Amino acid sequence: MFGTRIPRYRTRSGMFDDMVIAQIKRLSQAWPNYVRPVQFAVEDVPPSAPAPWEERARPCSHAFPGSHGMAPRVVLYRLPLQTAARDRVELQYAIRDELVDCIAQLYGRRPDEIDPDWGR
């Protein structure tokens, strides 16, 4: 009924994916050596039981360091981020902050070193 270019065609999950892709592109321009090797994924919700070695549960994202030939991975959880955000702009900032925090965690850096606007 609607074409793919008509705004009604975009679902909330599709718009979320677009926001994630835009932030990854922005970060990869500034830090290509940090972002290029990382695999990114979006899941609807986090697993119900965190792994025993995890110090704290992160309901919005998770960074998995690379090991045994596997690339490092960052997973964002869509529903917790969308639920916490009041509007589209706040959601964009939340996605940015989660991505920056996870990338910084993977490389042992402070988030404000990756993006000076982190947390603002």
From TrEMBL:
Coiled coil: none annotated. Pfam families: Zincin_1. It comes from the Bacteria. Gene3D superfamilies: 3.30.2010.20. This is Cytosolic protein. It comes from Bifidobacterium cuniculi.
